[in-house]
């Protein structure tokens, strides 16, 4: 029973015991074998190939370079490639670190780098050109394997085979040493992603006994005040070790009675690195378990002991694989293996973030750096909400109601802990990194309410949403509340900000209606019209205004910078009225004009100067002036639906699905943005998409595959068929839900949850 | 009933409620009025004049300068004067900070400096010469008042009257503003004692609401990894504020949407300072309560709300005064007011450290930086054990059995949390600063056992003592265990270290005997003879040996440096066999020779070159070659007792008591060393002294006053009389305890506890 499985999983999450049941699936097949973690690891996808379990706190993965975020002369643009620590074509591996962001466009983390070596102890990483000058190594690309929950590679410097797997909170390493020289493990507490000199404000290491090491580090990065603890257990006793602090130690004098650099079991400072040699006992294999905690080293140790009571690498690897199998086996598609690799990897990528952020006993570090115990929910972090409110969260709302409830509770807890008392903008390991704009926790919660997710208090949720939407000091909000738009003086992205506030406000009004708070509903319904205040009838674009109410000049509809937009230009952002496409079409002079406008968007040539300096937009992510690699346009392909041209939607969506997602390392056309790009793919390939999260509706497109079986969390089965689908028959003639024709382009959440048969009759007729 | 009072106090400590009972005292008089916190604030006493309660975690006191511990060129010797943050003759006050060490010879702390100002906001302290360039101020010396639990001064820059008082965990400030310009409070999170650029590795500040501010800082100082949290509540609402970070903020870009420097409620970094202006509501008085915690800001807030539910300055001040009165009223002396000021201030100084180190709910940060809950005891920190095992702890063992039990439990917890599993050397706010030598937690615990203190497990205690005494990596201990002495190659203080280990070992043997562990007793009794291994019969001095067993050369019996001693020379350290003076006398060729040797020590002229470069030794602390300002000799005046010349002991002790302790700011002849110098004074002035802590015996001297009443913790009264005492009658003819003559120079702990009448018949006959 699916329901039982969910409850057991929940139980397991709380007890921290990882047992996996043979899950109820649609058929006995194994879809996890199609997962290809290398997709997106080349160039712009910003994905990592390492090992993790769904929503796992640990993302154990190889890092292939150490480009600093900034040097003396400021931001270093080369660092951008290393948002996930890994570039597919890099020749060397620096080591294996335990935390990674999936698909972000800025970065952090990379905690507690482990590297196995043989022979001479070197504590610096060396360089890609000269790996021999440090602990890093070239690797044999042909040996590199990445699967669901498993990664393996042979490091050629010493011919050491490295294997990685993970539980929710524990990274598990197995190293096979040729034993030609003395094997050793390097632990580099300074290494990090988007590192810079001084990023580690403090760190500490303790050798607790002959096989256990604990410690923590505190970093000042994208998360400005971040603390992460670990406990590390080796499968063999330590024979010799050393902890080095490469920093000046003002007060080391009092340790004068010991030689600190060797066999001294405790050290703290800003540049701590350590090496360990082992009593190998005539066995060339060493297993490491490294558990994380945001609370304490004791918490990490508890996580380690609970989730990996024994260093049984094979068993843990199997558990990790099964955890993924249970997830991806909820959907079957009739498709080629290559298509399956793309599809199931998209599913995999949609289940990485948000990440579990609490110890097995429920304790976690709150936004105010205080320790909390999650009361009746699992706490999560890594909410990249500007990206993920669009499709990733609606996807989880549909398929993971318990996790969605937990995520809402996590965001409400965040707001309670916030000094501003507002919901997260970008929740990041007990910090808000304030990245991007809007208050998009609001549509995520409104969506959960609209779709009747249980497990959180709707009334509390609404009042917290209202607080976020009325916190005057936040980006231009005071002006917005007074004058109905954000002025360019208050925000360089004022047009985008105004449009997104208006949409967010609409979702508040919907949520308020749901629970009968009509005064709030009215107030925010009114605010939701504020997009009208930035519409310029003369240019037919939504434009930035100065506080005096005049549009800013000069104006270039193709430019993003200095025009009041962010990650989009006038063409893209002017279409951001997901809550009222009908009105938008009216502003554009009716359906025909609007469709022409959309046609222009998708076919016009965008001169290179508008994107060549923009990090995010690979040429492959461009379709005319539509940029799939950035999020503001993700709903646009579906807008033809509202202007009487659903077949244009079907065609454009299919073109994006088939040309911008591939089973290759460079198979993503932009950053996966914590799974948003992947979630867009999953929804669209199933044949429906949430154009306006916060309402219980999806827009119909067309399925990418002939037959899809979707096992719903209520244990209903929805079978989706695309009858007569072929390379030519890509248009939808008719849609039948359980035999009843759907006349418009809409399907409701409840209709999907009811399951049954959703049939698309495909045709070549445009 | 005294017993009841103790129990209630205990209860109150656990609940954190500070209610003060009119304590049972000997008579109705108020001895607290004699307490003069200025004693020792000039030059070398390293005391502070601010407000605190007995054993309080908060020591709220003015800091009069900001000399850095080190600058580019290393250690700055001028900083030494500012170990307690204050020098009596300094012309300016920088502000009032919440933590101070009492009488140490190295330093730290000075957390969360508060300064009241009027007018222009300046966030730098300015200089002593140019206070107008910063927030610091000159002050009117004639207005400066320091009493038990209270400090007050008028800051002349703006004519602001400042008043300070405290509870155990809360510093309470009251400022009276002339209101000529806008009043403001400066909060400087960078300020500190023994500060240096970079000492604050991280800090954070949050304005929680219109009157509450929380935050923390983490410092890398004498305590290398120290975290201290606070909660601050103002009695009036904040009108305007600003939080400034003077440091480069690599990641401040994401806050671009706000002006961070004003009205932004949260900031973290390395150089955080803040200012607050208030809605004064036509009242010129502002009260601040600032609570500390080692655990969290929430812990601090709980401490604040529990200990100071209201900002009633007068009541809190009265409570603080009464807490001191309850302590000092346990002893009455017949003496002049001037003598009483010296005596009761010594009592006051003996009750500052160790300091309570846990929140009202029992939580505290352990040595491993993890959070613990004290189970059945009150946790303490600040154990300067090399100093305090001699007299301060024996004094507490006699007068504060409950606190002594708590302190032992605190040290046992420290050992459990230690990566080395050893007892503290110098326990310092969740750190061991490893200052000085020996393992002198051992004699403190042995002393508590010998004196039958209840409340800790003797067997656990013994095994922890043994662990500390057998931890091979500790200063030369491996060599000591093998060869019976520490070699100079392993420790620059090898002679001192060997002698102190031997004594500590003796106390282990005594403790083991007590609980019938005869094998341990035998082993450590043997080790206690190791002092013999460094005795050089040719020079009659205890001397440093090389690992080959030869004494080091050259040898200068008057020198400390490079001779294998620390804070003492061959003359002093060679007499450090407190556990076997008889054998020592034998080594010196019998009583007569030994007495001649002691006479030489106390009368010889020590050439200035031997002490002029030594920070600690003010000329006034010298008596011949005996240095009272340093601890290794503190038992020496009592050694005449063992060589048949008790009258010499009586004369020398009296001379020290009357010439080296005065009721003046420069009234201490050396650092008070967390109360050790004061405890020496108290014991000696009562007429007995613990020459060998770890045994239940005291050596008799002679009382300094004609009549003393000592209320013991068991509620017995010991009356001590010095019949016929006069400036000439300073020798003891006969001692009677409850009418029975004491024939030797010894009185036991039990005899004292039994109370009654201890009569000294004084005479002028030598």
Description:
2 copies of one chain form a homodimer. Chain A has 766 residues and is an alpha+beta fold. Among the domains of chain A are: 3-33, no CATH class; 34-324, Beta-galactosidase, Chain A, domain 5; 362-457 and 464-471, alpha-1,2-mannosidase (Glutathione S-transferase Yfyf (Class Pi), Chain A, domain 2, Up-down Bundle), CATH 1.20.1050.60. The first copy, chain A, contains 18 helices and 38 strands. Chain A has a 9-stranded antiparallel β-sheet with strand order 8-9-10-11-19-15-14-13-17. In chain A, strands 20-33-34-38-35-36 form a 6-stranded mixed β-sheet. In chain A, helix 8 (441-450) packs parallel to helix 11 (494-514). The longest helix of chain A has 21 residues, at 494-514. The radius of gyration of chain A is 26 Å and the shape is globular. The two termini of chain A are 43 Å apart. The model of chain A is unreliable at 1-25 (pLDDT under 50). Chains A and B meet through strand 13 and strand 17 of A and strand 13 and strand 17 of B.
| Main pleated sheet of chain A | 9 strands, antiparallel
Share of helix among residues of chain A? 25-40%
Write down the CATH class of the domain at 34-324 in chain A: Mainly Beta
Q: Radius of gyration of chain A over alpha carbons?
A: 26 Å
Mean pLDDT of chain A: 93
Low-confidence runs of at least 5 consecutive residues of chain A: 1-25
CATH topology of the domain at 34-324 in chain A: Beta-galactosidase, Chain A, domain 5
Strand content of chain A: 15-25%
Q: Oligomeric form of this entry?
A: homodimer
Please count the beta strands of chain A (DSSP E, at least 2 residues each): 38
Question: How many DSSP helices of chain A?
Answer: 18
CATH second-level architecture of the domain at 34-324 in chain A: Distorted Sandwich
Across the major sheet of chain A, the strand order is 8-9-10-11-19-15-14-13-17
> Based on helices, strands and strand pairing, what is the structural class of chain A?
alpha+beta
Shape of chain A: globular
Distance between the termini of chain A: 43 Å
Largest interface (CB within 8 Å) is between: A-B, 49 and 49 residues
């Amino acid at each position: 029973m699916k329901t039982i499985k969910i409850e057991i999983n929940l139980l397991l999450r709380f007890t921290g015991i990882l047992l996996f049941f043979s899950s109820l699936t649609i058929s006995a097949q194994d879809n996890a074998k199609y997962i290809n973690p290398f997709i997106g690891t080349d160039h712009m996808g910003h994905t990592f190939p390492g090992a993790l379990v769904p929503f796992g706190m640990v993302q154990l993965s190889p890092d292939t370079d150490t480009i600093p975020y900034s040097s003396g002369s400021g931001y270093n643009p080369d660092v951008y490639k290393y948002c996930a620590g890994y570039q597919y074509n890099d020749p060397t591996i620096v080591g294996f670190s335990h935390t990674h962001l999936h698909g972000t466009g800025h970065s952090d983390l990379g905690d507690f780098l482990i590297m196995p070596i043989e022979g001479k102890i070197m504590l610096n990483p060396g360089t890609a050109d000269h790996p021999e000058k440090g602990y890093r190594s070239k690797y044999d690309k042909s040996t590199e394997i990445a699967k669901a929950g498993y990664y393996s590679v042979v490091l050629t410097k010493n011919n050491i085979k490295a294997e990685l797997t993970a539980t929710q909170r524990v990274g598990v390493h197995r190293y096979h040493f040729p034993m030609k020289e003395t094997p050793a493990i390097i632990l580099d507490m300074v290494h990090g992603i988007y590192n810079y000199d001084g990023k580690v404000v403090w760190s500490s290491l303790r050798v607790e006994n002959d096989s256990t090491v604990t410690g923590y580090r505190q970093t000042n990065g994208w998360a400005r005040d971040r603390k992460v603890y670990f406990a590390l257990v080796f499968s063999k006793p330590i024979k010799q070790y050393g902890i080095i602090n490469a920093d000046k130690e003002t007060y080391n004098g009092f340790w004068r009675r010991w030689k600190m650099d060797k066999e001294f079991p405790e050290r703290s400072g800003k540049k701590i690195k350590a090496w360990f040699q082992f009593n190998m006992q005539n066995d060339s294999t060493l297993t490491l378990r490294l558990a994380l905690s945001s609370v304490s080293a004791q918490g990490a140790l508890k996580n380690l002991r609970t989730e990996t009571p024994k260093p049984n690498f094979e068993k843990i690897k199997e558990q990790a694989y099964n955890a993924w199998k249970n997830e991806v086996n909820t959907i079957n598609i009739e498709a080629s293996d290559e298509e399956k690799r793309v599809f199931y990897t998209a599913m995999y990528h949609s289940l990485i973030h948000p990440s579990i952020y609490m110890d097995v006993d429920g304790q976690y570090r709150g936004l105010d750096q205080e320790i909390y115990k999650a009361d009746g929910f699992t706490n999560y972090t890594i909410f990249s909400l500007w990206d993920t409110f669009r499709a990733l969260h609606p996807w989880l709302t549909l398929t993971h109601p318990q996790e969605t409830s937990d995520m809402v509770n996590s965001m409400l807890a965040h707001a309670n802990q916030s000094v501003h008392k507002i919901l997260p903008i970008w929740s990041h390991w007990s910090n808000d990194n304030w990245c991007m704009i809007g208050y998009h926790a609001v549509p995520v919660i409104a969506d959960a309410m609209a779709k009747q997710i249980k497990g959180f208090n709707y009334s509390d949720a609404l009042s917290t949403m209202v607080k976020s939407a009325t916190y005057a000091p936040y980006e231009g909000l005071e002006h917005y509340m007074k004058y109905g738009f954000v002025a360019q003086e208050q925000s360089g992205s004022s047009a985008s900000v105004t449009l997104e506030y208006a949409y967010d406000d609409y979702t508040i009004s919907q949520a308020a209606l749901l629970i009968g708070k009509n005064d709030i509903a009215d107030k925010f319904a009114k605010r939701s019209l504020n997009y009208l205040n930035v519409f310029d009838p003369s240019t037919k674009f939504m434009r930035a205004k100065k506080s005096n109410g005049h549009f800013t000049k000069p104006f270039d509809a193709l430019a993003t910078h200095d025009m009041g937009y962010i990650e989009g230009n006038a063409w893209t952002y002017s279409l951001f009225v997901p809550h009222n496409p009908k009105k938008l079409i009216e502003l554009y002079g009716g359906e025909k004009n609007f469709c022409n406008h959309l046609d222009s968007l998708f076919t016009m040539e965008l001169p290179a100067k508008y994107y060549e300096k923009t990090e995010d937009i690979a040429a492959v992510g461009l379709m005319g002036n539509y940029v799939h690699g950035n999020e503001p346009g993700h709903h646009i392909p579906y807008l033809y639906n509202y202007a009487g041209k659903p077949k244009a939607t079907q065609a454009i969506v299919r073109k994006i699905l088939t040309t911008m997602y591939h089973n290759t390392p460079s198979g993503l056309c932009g950053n996966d943005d914590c799974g948003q790009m992947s979630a867009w793919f999953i929804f669209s390939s199933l044949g429906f998409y949430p154009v306006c999260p916060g309402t219980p509706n999806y827009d119909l497109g067309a399925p990418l595959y002939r037959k899809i079986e979707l096992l719903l969390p209520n244990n209903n089965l929805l079978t989706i068929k695309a009858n007569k689908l072929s390379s030519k028959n890509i248009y939808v003639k008719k849609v039948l839900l359980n035999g009843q024709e759907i006349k418009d382009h809409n399907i409701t959440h409840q209709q999907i949850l009811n399951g049954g048969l959703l049939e698309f009759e495909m045709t070549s007729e445009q």
